[in-house]
Amino acid sequence: MTNYRNDRTEVLESDANPNVKRWRRLATDPRFVKKAGATLLEGAHLAECYFQTGLPVTNLLVAQSANAEARHWVETYERERGLRPRVVADRLWQTLSPVEHGIGIMLEVPVPKTKDVDFSREDVLYLDGVQDAGNVGTLIRTAVAAGFRTIAASPKTAGFYAPKVMRAGMGAHFGAKLIENCPIDLFAERYEGTILAADARGGEDLFAADDYASGPVCWILGAEGPGVSSEALAKTQRRFYIPIEEACESLNVGAAAAVCLFDVRRRRLARR
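-> structure tokens emitted (272 positions)
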């Protein structure tokens, strides 16, 4: 592996560089992501997914010791988008990237502006206070895979566009309608489908229940530990638990969501 450098680039080597300081804050502070209206996408997969969207890129970052795969995407963005890469010294790159064996490419991109999305007749996954960034990204990815392309979240849920959430989402963000900071009262007032809750504390056996998926449905998933809040439960029409073996206390929220969302898909496919 050789250093990435050409006659048009300089290597950013100072901790005091204002761009480096900004990128470090974007990488580590989800609140700054919201304030700045920008985020970081790391790795070849996200670089490829984002390239296919045609959306704007603010900065193209490359580690000084980036590998061949990273260089391929740097050259692609240079050639197709006219972007000049910002080369970051490896010592500083390690302060931007938590990925231990990353390939050495990041994009700084603007966070999409919030739009007034009509979700009233959509299938929706609603996240109620899920604060772990990795879980939130996994939930977005799982929802899109199951055909739930609208994902809404309570104000206490981790921000959808934090870099760790983006990494866990593996590009699913770009195929979804994402609604942040949506209180459950407002959501329920506008939603015309059936609101369901996944609740390990009780309710109906999901696998023994009669059909609940003939029309639009919203599944509410809560944080691991506290589960769905009492405020959100009060807005549901039906509540379900997933029957699991006694030897296992519970499922994590990502696994529970996969079971619930794909149960909707299974029931609908069975009716065809």
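Residues 152 and 179 are 4 Å apart (CA to CA).
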